[in-house]
Amino acid sequence: MAGSVDRRGFLKGSAALATGVVAGFSCVEVAAAAPIEVPTVDKLALRVLIDSAHDQFLKPSTLQGVSHQPPGSGRGSDYRKVLHNQWGLSLFAESQRADEGRTILLDFGYSPDALLNNIEILKVDPTRVDALVVSHGHHDHYGGLTGFLDRYRNSLAPDLKLYAGGEDNFCHRVSPSGVQGQFTDFGQLDRRELAAQRVTTVLCEAPTVIAGHAFTTGQIKRSSIERILPNTFVERGLKDGLGCDATHYSPAELQGKIIPDEHVHEHATCFNIRGKGLVVISSCGHVGIVNSVRQAQDVSGVEKVHAIVGGFHLGPAPKDYLTQVVAEIKKLNPDVVIPMHCSGLNFALEAQAQMPDHVIVPTTGSRLTFGA
């Protein structure tokens, strides 16, 4: 993609940010609640750095104006190295408006080993990254972040920002162990490590413009037939700087109870493609993919949906519920639906049945291009 002008100066004007101190952390900003001016870009390319599978037999294709270029064998110049797949997601987003380019790294997979390995094999340039986005506080989406920063921080912008959906990203999470009432640790995003790496976290509970090219949905309203399917549990509170700030929660939420995760912090990352419409990227869609798209439409004022991309967390969905959700997605009239990660093979099959000419199933290493 063509180089940009003043690549390191854009953050000063990319969003209305209220700078402040949250829970004593000076490296935190809170996105202002004012309406945003949604940017338009000419082109977007998404490189799938990490997904759950790789298929070397996929053929290049173009569907509804969206180009899909798979990575072939997934090997680099050294035949002994190969793309790593894992339960998680990471996307390298390069957008273009005239001669101005921006690069956003959205989510970081489960482990730094996989992320760093795939960056090297796919030959993307991490030093071009203008902003970081974490979709929600699950380890399979932030696990590679600190390793990425360890490797590349000194080559990135001094004022680098991580855009997170809200304070809830930093809460401690656990997973059911299979034994009634018992849980296993699922970790928590450590903002102390981010501060040590000179990364400012922006809490985007309100819609926020990122890098002057993208925008986030802010907190997603829940108005569709969708429901949160069973996943993690959450523990709220702050101890020795680790966890989520207790002042954000009511006394009832702070009784030390481990409660089902409602994902109040999850947000989607979106691009408005000139002449095409919205590309809505939902890394997991716990709060509902239809809800996420509707929120993007409301925030942007753009009704046309060009592409719905990412994880939709419908792998565990019962058949009748899955059928109903896919029917609701179809009503949104997207040009393409591109399931990844936790969407599930069941979703891909149902979407292909209901929307046969509108589904692209990518793989780790795929490159998806939207726009001219």
From TrEMBL:
<keyword id="KW-0378">Hydrolase</keyword>
<dbReference type="InterPro" id="IPR036866">
    <property type="entry name" value="RibonucZ/Hydroxyglut_hydro"/>
</dbReference>
<dbReference type="InterPro" id="IPR052926">
    <property type="entry name" value="Metallo-beta-lactamase_dom"/>
</dbReference>
<dbReference type="Pfam" id="PF00753">
    <property type="entry name" value="Lactamase_B"/>
</dbReference>
<feature type="domain" description="Metallo-beta-lactamase">
    <location>
        <begin position="99"/>
        <end position="158"/>
    </location>
</feature>
<protein>
    <submittedName>
        <fullName>MBL fold metallo-hydrolase</fullName>
    </submittedName>
</protein>
<dbReference type="InterPro" id="IPR006311">
    <property type="entry name" value="TAT_signal"/>
</dbReference>
<dbReference type="InterPro" id="IPR041712">
    <property type="entry name" value="DHPS-like_MBL-fold"/>
</dbReference>
<dbReference type="GO" id="GO:0016740">
    <property type="term" value="F:transferase activity"/>
</dbReference>
<dbReference type="GO" id="GO:0016787">
    <property type="term" value="F:hydrolase activity"/>
</dbReference>
<dbReference type="InterPro" id="IPR001279">
    <property type="entry name" value="Metallo-B-lactamas"/>
</dbReference>
